[in-house]
Design a protein that fits this description.
Number of helices: 9
CATH superfamily of the largest domain: Efflux pump adaptor protein, beta barrel domain
Strand content: 15-25%
Strand order of the largest sheet: 2-9-12-11-10-13
Structural class: alpha+beta
Number of strands: 13
Shape: rod-shaped
Length: 481
């Protein structure tokens, strides 16, 4: 090991003396790059050959021809009398040189970007109506964070046209007044109808009692008529017997016969009258009234029918007005929403992010479609990188990559999502690809961890290292390493 350190010190000294940068022993090991390592190996081999030539016995007589032939031997042939320690030292030197040269060679084969920056999509919020701007949250400025659907700005237009909405509201008030009148009329008619119904029922009950009383009276008259008939029949029998003995005249007999016939007819008449009364009584019990001095409907029932028809008409009109009011209220609601949209509009954030650029100020009058604020979509964070042509030719969509922030942050794992080449595509990103001018070829990468957390890392620079193992395998370097 002492021998190797001596050789390394000589090699550093050999490189440092022409440049006159100080002592070779003060050169850091990190500056011991591949070219110095190759020079070191050549020096070791040369010293080894010189040592072998010095170890050859000087007392041995060498023929000039043989000496000339020995000097013309190929350099790759090993002398026969090499010492084991020399071989071991040489192997150690080669191993150390290979170990020290592995890292620079690996860095040379690693594909990296010239520059890379965290980027994100920019969403522009525009004014849907004309009006004056007002902030929904006090202190809204560049960098303020907003969640999805959170109010950012409010635009109010105090000069919006609401005449149609006013007309609809007046029509609604008129309908309310008419409905109130109809409801009051319905209540009055309903009260009259109920009273007439009660009056009709009282009349029916009274009529039934009256007819029932008349039936009983007729029954009494029939009983009286039957008694008279019995008396008349007995008188007729006596008169007939007396007439046989010529005790009475024929006129007396005729009078007795007449009385008996009248009594019999009276019974039959009262019986028929009773039957008619029973018919009228049954009709009254069923709600129909039969009489010879009036029609089948009493005055209270007729008035009740008129009130019922009028009440039905009022109820139909009331139902129509209520249906018209419901339709009008639906129109008012639609017009109210439209009027509110035209008179005031709440500008809400469509993404989870922060304000990237404020294009207006509170109190400013804006027009329809005017840009108001630009929001950074933190959920769409990507990395835009520029690479050289040789590095670009090794890349493909979906290839794995590593992003190392320059501020020493967490190393992120991702993959390639876009190869734009020489075309600096214009997009809605916060940082355009044309701003990366160190190398002409542009690459877009996605790192899932960038979208986590509550902060947008847009603008932070770093270095992207691409995974080129597959590329090394394709050119046959994997077996070498």
């Amino acid at each position: 090991m002492t021998y190797l350190h001596q050789r390394a010190s000589k090699l550093r000294r050999a490189h440092s003396e022409p440049a006159q940068v100080g002592r070779a022993s003060d050169i850091p090991s990190a500056q011991f790059d591949a070219s110095m390592q190759l020079d070191y190996l050549e020096t070791v081999i040369k010293e080894w050959r010189d040592q072998q030539s010095e170890e050859t016995p000087s007392s041995k007589t060498v023929d000039p021809v043989q000496a000339e032939a020995a000097t013309t031997k190929p350099a790759w042939k090993k002398p026969a009398n090499i010492r084991i320690s020399t071989i071991v030292k040489s192997c150690l030197a080669v191993a150390i040189a290979a170990a020290l040269g592995w890292a620079p060679v690996l860095r040379l084969l690693t594909t990296t970007s010239a520059e890379a920056v965290v980027n994100a999509r920019v969403v522009t919020l525009r004014a849907p109506i004309e009006g004056d701007v007002k902030t929904s949250v006090d202190g809204t400025e560049i960098g303020t964070r907003f969640q999805t659907n959170q109010a950012v700005l409010i635009v109010r237009n105090p000069r919006s046209d609401v005449s149609h909405l006013d007309n609809l509201r007046r029509s609604r008030d008129q309908l309310h007044t008419e409905i109130s009148a109809l409801e009051a009329r319905e209540q009055v008619l309903g009260t009259d109808f109920a009273e007439l119904t009660a009056q009709q029922e009282r009349f029916r009950i009274g009529r039934i009692k009256q007819l029932d009383q008349r039936v009983r009276e007729t029954d009494a008259n029939i009983a009286l008529a039957k008694a008279q008939y019995v008396t008349a029949s007995a008188a007729l029998t006596r008169a007939t017997a007396l007439k046989r003995t010529d005790a009475v005249s024929q006129a007396f007999l005729d009078k007795a016969l007449q009385d008996e016939s009248v009594a019999n007819d009276t019974i039959r008449g009262l019986t028929e009258r009773r039957t008619g009364m029973l018919v009228e009584l049954d009709a009254a019990k069923n709600g129909s009234f039969i009489g010879d001095s009036y029609n089948d409907t009493p005055q209270s029932a007729q008035r009740k029918m008129e009130i019922g028809l009028e009440l039905a008409d009022v109820r139909a009109r009331l139902a129509g007005r209520k249906s018209e009011l419901a339709s009008l209220q639906s129109d008012i609601d639609s017009e109210t929403r439209r009027s509110e949209e035209l008179s005031a509009a709440v500008i809400r954030s469509t993404v989870d992010g922060r304000v990237w650029e404020m294009l207006t100020a509170p109190g400013e009058h804006v027009n329809v479609g005017q840009d108001l604020v630009r929001m950074l979509d933190c959920g769409s964070a990507i990395v835009t990188a520029s690479v050289s042509e040789s590095a670009y030719q090794r890349l493909s969509i979906g290839q794995a990559a590593t992003f190392r922030p320059r501020d020493g942050g967490k190393v992120l794992q991702g993959h390639v999502v876009g190869l734009n080449g020489l075309a600096a595509v214009t997009s809605n990103s916060a940082i355009q690809q044309s701003q990366l001018s160190r190398e002409p070829y542009h690459v877009t990468l996605k790192f899932p961890d960038l979208t986590k957390g509550n902060d947008c890392h847009v603008g932070r620079s770093g270095l992207v290292e691409f995974d080129t193992k597959s590329f090394a395998s394709s050119i046959g370097l994997s077996s070498f390493f």
